[in-house]
Specification:
By secondary structure, this protein is an alpha+beta fold. The protein is built from eleven helices and 14 strands.
């Protein structure tokens, strides 16, 4: 969003315009626009870690227990991955055929390429870039990648007891396996925060990119990224990266029934959720660790907890008037 705002990237540019190795592949003509709308044709997920496990344990040719120049990316406690394995991950995504359909399908795979593009344009690692551009200037000191570098472990909520990959309690490390194999810093996962910091970020967006009289993002850019663009493509409801309410809300989608069609937000696999409604001037942040101790816990969804609390917030505001 910021790079578009500064004119350093356009939505119609192709991934291959920045990453020449994609030329000649079926990814050559994918536009940034389609990646942000989850309609580029990527598979929903690739379990990269499974090919690095032998007899239930990490392959010692790929992982070491101690840090070194060659094994400097920390995946978990006493687990470092070979730095060069990043190339293997990118090759797997590049070589995996796109779906025939370009209908909406949520996928993080295109964001691996976007991370590389962002770092190429800015000349900075993405964690340094977002900290220097947004988090530190705004004063969001609880919003970081790899929080164990900044906070004691007991201040960080665990997300899973991982028995298939890292074989330990995941606390202070990103839950997403692919992001973990990048050293915890990815474009699609890895950011830790608290409810206050998330609310401040959403307030900045609700203010059309402005906070404390500082314009971080232009209003036109915020409006562009938070509005629908893909309705004519099999009713894809999404904005650019942001999710949107169902086109015909019935209480089963990502929002409660009272959320306006101009509202936007995002949910996370581990049980996180935030939503901003410019029509009603309401911001909702729900942070949980629903994947702890096991990620197959779907109680939040089956009980519709996030949506019910969201609806209560609207009713509370309405009743206070």
């Amino acid at each position: 969003m910021k790079l578009y705002d500064e004119g350093k990237i356009t939505l119609t540019e192709k991934l291959s315009d920045f990453l020449p190795y994609l030329k000649g592949t079926d990814k050559e003509n994918i536009r940034i626009f389609d990646v942000l709308g989850h309609q580029a044709g990527f598979k929903s997920w690739i379990p990269f870690y499974t090919s690095t496990i032998i007899n239930g344990k990490p392959d010692t040719a790929i992982y070491h227990k101690k840090f070194s120049k060659t094994f400097s990316l920390k995946v978990a406690d006493s687990l470092y991955i070979n730095n060069s394995y990043y190339d293997t991950i990118i090759k797997k995504i590049t070589d995996t055929p796109l779906n025939k359909s370009k209908d909406y399908l949520y996928s993080d795979l295109g964001l691996y390429f976007l991370k590389e593009i962002i770092e190429k344009i800015t000349g900075q690692k993405i964690d340094d870039y977002v900290s220097k551009t947004f988090y530190n200037p705004i004063g969001l000191y609880s919003t970081v990648y790899n929080p164990l570098n900044y906070f004691p472990r007991d201040k960080i909520t665990p997300s899973e007891i991982d028995s298939t990959f890292r074989n330990q309690k995941i606390q202070g490390y990103v839950n997403d396996q692919g992001a973990a194999m990048l050293g915890g810093v990815a474009c699609h996962a890895g950011i830790f925060s608290n409810a206050w910091d998330v609310a401040v970020i959403m307030q900045m967006l609700l203010n059309e990119g402005k906070l404390d009289n500082i314009q971080y993002i232009k209003p036109t850019t915020v409006n562009l990224f938070t509005k629908r663009h893909f309705v004519n493509n099999n009713n894809n409801r999404r904005a650019l990266l942001f999710d949107k309410p169902l086109l015909n809300p019935d209480g089963t989608g990502p929002t409660c029934i009272s959320a306006s069609q101009n509202s936007y937000g995002h949910s996370g696999f581990t049980g996180t959720y935030t939503w901003a409604d410019p029509d009603n001037k309401l911001i909702y942040v729900f942070l949980s660790n629903r994947t702890y101790p096991k990620p197959d816990n779907k109680t939040i969804s089956t009980l519709n907890i996030r949506t019910l609390i969201h609806q209560l917030a609207y009713e509370a505001v309405k009743n206070s008037k």
